[in-house]
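Design job #97: recover the sequence.
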């Protein structure tokens, strides 16, 4: 979700120089977003790795294939993906797990990430959006909720993708994609390949999420943790109300009318985001992929029920797709590929909405005319 900030004066840059940008990493009473003052060098070597398949095919050279291909599993877990990850890590300790994050193509970390660090007030276990929930979980779990959260995020994800001018009005992104105009009118689905990017952060740790009898949620290290490779990828934003947001909103600056107007284009964009995530995870040696229901929530716009129901089928299409160099099915390189369904109201893997029945003109008239 996009949010505009009024940066208070003062503070220090990460390099220690004077700055008139965000304040240091102190949780202020006014809830202002803050910069990290902790030394980012302690997290050196963990910078996100960018995998782009917009112009090149995947490369599975040197990867070991399995005896039989995997297929998409839809697992119901109300507390979310990290709990499933802990369960798999416990039952399959030799597996290497990738956890996909349904990212914001204009802003790393969504509401958690701000220029130069994190908004500490946005780090908590009560998010209803997957990106903010998993990023909060990761930062809290790895740092025990300490002041290093901003430094960890800045050293890994900060500035690696998103808007070139975070508080500006342009559509220019670090990854050189114009999400607003790049899809044309939506009739050419090959343009949906602009969503074929993934950013990978290996060596992360997530906790299981637990709930209390009163409905409270927390990241619970005692309930389990697991090591994972985070894979950030963003699908198309077809949420028309994004156009009404403030000019600096990343929702507005990544809104794709082509995705809203054309379901085939939208579906293909979702497929490219998932494909890029699987291929990036494979290159990192991961054998279990926990996929996000990318663009199945707010970003789905008018397609929410339809894309949620179709998601497992899209994943299965990707798993039977041959990949170079040996042209074996992609699913042969994964032990398990899992999509999380949060509950009965979740559209992921649900029964597709029925198509409206064709009616005669007389039936239409009778349905709308008052009875005599």
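Job complete. Output follows.
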């Amino acid at each position: 979700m996009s949010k505009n900030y009024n940066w208070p004066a003062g503070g220090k840059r990460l390099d220690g120089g004077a700055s008139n940008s965000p304040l240091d990493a102190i949780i202020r009473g006014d809830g202002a977003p803050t910069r990290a003052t902790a030394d980012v060098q302690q997290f050196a070597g963990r910078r996100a790795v960018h995998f782009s398949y917009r112009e090149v095919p995947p490369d599975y050279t040197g990867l070991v294939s399995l005896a039989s291909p995997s297929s998409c599993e839809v697992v119901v877990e109300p507390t979310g993906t990290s709990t499933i990850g802990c369960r798999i890590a416990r039952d399959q300790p030799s597996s290497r797990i990738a956890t996909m994050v349904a990212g914001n193509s204009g802003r790393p970390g969504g509401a958690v990430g701000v220029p130069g660090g994190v908004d500490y007030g946005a780090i908590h276990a009560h998010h209803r959006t997957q990106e903010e929930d998993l990023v909060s979980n990761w930062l809290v779990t790895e740092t025990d909720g300490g002041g290093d959260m901003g430094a960890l995020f800045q050293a890994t994800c900060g500035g690696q993708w998103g808007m070139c001018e975070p508080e500006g009005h342009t559509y220019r992104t670090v990854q050189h994609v114009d999400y607003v105009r790049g899809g044309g009118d939506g009739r050419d689905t090959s343009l949906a390949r602009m969503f074929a990017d993934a950013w990978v952060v290996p060596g992360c740790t997530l906790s299981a999420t637990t709930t209390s009898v009163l409905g409270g949620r927390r990241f619970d290290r005692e309930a389990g943790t697991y090591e994972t490779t985070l894979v950030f990828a963003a699908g198309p934003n077809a949420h028309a109300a994004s156009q009404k947001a403030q000019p600096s909103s990343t929702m507005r600056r990544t809104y794709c009318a082509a995705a809203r107007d054309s379901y085939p284009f939208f579906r293909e964009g979702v497929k490219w985001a998932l494909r890029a995530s699987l291929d990036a995870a494979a290159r990192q040696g991961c054998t279990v992929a926990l996929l996000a229901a990318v663009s199945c929530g707010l970003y789905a716009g008018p397609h929410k029920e339809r894309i949620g129901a179709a998601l497992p089928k899209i994943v299965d299409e990707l798993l039977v797709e041959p990949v170079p160099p040996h042209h074996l099915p992609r699913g042969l390189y994964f032990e398990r590929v899992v999509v999380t369904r949060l509950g009965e109201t979740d559209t992921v893997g649900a029964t597709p909405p029925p198509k409206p029945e064709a009616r005669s003109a007389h039936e239409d008239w009778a349905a709308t005319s008052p009875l005599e």
